[in-house]
Amino acid sequence: MFGKQTGDIFDLEVPPNHHVIGFYGSSGRWIDNLGVIAVPVRTVASPVKPPQSPQPTAVNEQLAAIPRAGIELIKEFEGYAKALPDGRAKAYADPLRGWEVPTIGYGTTRYPNGVKVRQGDVVTQHQAEDYLIHHVDKSCRGPLEKIPTWGQMNINQRGALYSFAYNLGSGFYRGYNFESITRVCDSPELWQDHRWIAAQFVKYRNPGTSVEEGLRRRRLAEAALFCKPVSSSTPNWDDDHDEAGEAGDHSPEKRLDQIVREVAGKQPVGAKLTPTMSFDTLITPHITYGEFALYDQARRFRFDHQCQTAYEISLFLERCRAHFGGNPLVITSGYRPPEVNNRIGGARKSEHLYDYPDKGAVDFYIKGVSIYEVESWCDQHYPHSIGYGASRGFVHLGMRSGKPRIRWVY
Fold first, then answer.
1. pLDDT at res. 158
2. Which of 76, 78, 243, 375 is catalytic?
3. DSSP states of 105-159 as a string?
4. Which domains are present in the chain?
């Protein structure tokens, strides 16, 4: 049987390259289990319901023009709504217009083939992203490419403007009340002035409304991406560029309340940390020894120099935490002994190995704060290693022998 029941209406679909030769079903007061009998033919029937996802070739072509960082920023602020336990998402009613406008995934209301989303529809997260990319490509790409300075912009600047356009409309350039963002586009000589760029973006936040704070965060994240330099370095695949297997894991966040209870009344030990201390030992006022080990005894430090590196990293993490209002900071990956690093597929010379003095790393995020804002702030203030992992939900903060300033993109 081919078809899908939605409410009290039964839509029948004929598979591609099939022809209907009959119907079947049981009947009572209503017709139940209605289906079609189809046989293969040479001609292709036009499908009634939307395809499960856009064709991969088309999506790849779109991504060639739409920076991944822009898509990730849109996803972060649009949200993946109504997620089911298995990771798929079901259609939901538009917050303002209800079921008059069924919506799914990252805000999709109409599938790439033009068919409207219907109540009861379900998509995978990959499909939802494909629909988002298709919509961004069709609604934003044309107008943005007409901006005179578009050819001078790098992929991060373009990604920031894709997010801005998706949120506020693709026709913003030289539009009414869009003088400030138009000035940004028309002023390449000011593109390295981070403060000025942020001041222009943040004007578009609907002051005095219930959405002001959310829009403020989004505008600052877009400004941070616009000002973020594009890495031109060639990745060293023995290094941390290829890893991040556990870095995007947000399960450590579940321990936050327990950690707060365990450290109540304790004082930080700072540079006096030793490998044998308990995991609830505070290194600095808000960061524990256990967080560097993910509270796993197999990841306990083995040498004093590892403790000193953790202390130095913790000092900067405290600065970062304070800058963003004291929101909880979550470490998703810290010390990895060789056997752990091998098991999870970490890079051969990963900073997470802490195998030499002044070598170590953490991957982290700050709860309730845009990871792009955190990444941008760290990029400006941290003098050692940073891996740009915001698109995967984390920032990599590390150091290595000689403490050079290194940047890379995951």
1. 95
2. 78
3. TTTB-B-TTSPBP-TT-EE-HHHHHHHHHHHHIIIIIHHHHTSTTGGG--HHHHH
4. 4-40 (no CATH), 50-145 (no CATH), 146-230 (no CATH), 240-409 (3.30.1380.10)
